[in-house]
Amino acid sequence: MKFDRSVKIAPSILSADFANFGAEIQAVEAQGADWIHVDVMDGHFVPNITFGPATCAAIRPHIKTVMDVHLMIAPVDPYIQAFADAGADVITAHVEAGPHIHRTLQAIRATGAKAGLALNPGTPAEVAAPLLDMVDLICVMTVNPGFGGQKFIHSCVQKVTELREMIGDREVHIEIDGGVDPSTAPLVIAAGADVLVAGSAVFKGGSVQNPVPYGENIRAIRASV
Ligand SMILES: O=C(CO)[C@H](O)[C@H](O)COP(=O)(O)O
Ligand SMILES: [Fe+2]
């Protein structure tokens, strides 16, 4: 996976048809998705449950681009190798999910996957400062994690500005996750983000049988920035 700073749109399959992940992924990629964002929730770190490494392994052959796995689970460390074996290109863990984020990031990189660090809306940018040389991506949550379709929290935009400044010329992506649509995307891109996760804003109005709205929705976000 080569680093580049261009704007990337990563549809979250949290808003896809759970009985049809393979076809949904192929549809959004055909309609212009740059990465595929995969939300793993455990009903403990967040109040919702999605799926685990077996589902990730099953959908992997359908992804031609980048498999971006967002782990909303605690603990994280016992499961890192399983998600790497499932074919994740990026594995993102939350700083709030345990006491040893430094060890977690080391363990992710040791698998060969890119290491992501996610920050909840209530977590300040400064927590990332000692970790900047250990991360390939910082995921700024712009909703409280657990559900799709929530409202973007505007106070998080300032955090993106602070992180962009802290990152300097390091090759670290800033990803925005939650409530991204054509009205909020320009705010975070202007602040320095380059990866836009979007679930409801990409999948709305379309289906595997009628994927054209997926393309329209992706193009609307791209055109807005
Ligand atoms: O991590 C997530 C929720 O915890 C999802 O990636 C995020 O909410 C995307 O959904 P939407 O674009 O509908 O807000
Ligand atoms: Fe996510």
TrEMBL record:
Belongs to the ribulose-phosphate 3-epimerase family. The lineage of its organism: Bacteria, Pseudomonadati, Pseudomonadota, Alphaproteobacteria, Rhodobacterales. Keywords: Carbohydrate metabolism, Cobalt, Isomerase, Manganese, Metal-binding, Zinc. PROSITE patterns: RIBUL_P_3_EPIMER_1 (PS01085), RIBUL_P_3_EPIMER_2 (PS01086). The active site is at 39 (proton acceptor), 177 (proton donor). Catalyzes the reversible epimerization of D-ribulose 5-phosphate to D-xylulose 5-phosphate. It comes from Marivita cryptomonadis. It comes from the Bacteria. GO terms for cellular component: cytoplasm. Its cofactor is Mn(2+); Co(2+); a divalent metal cation; Fe(2+). HAMAP family: RPE. This is Ribulose-phosphate 3-epimerase.
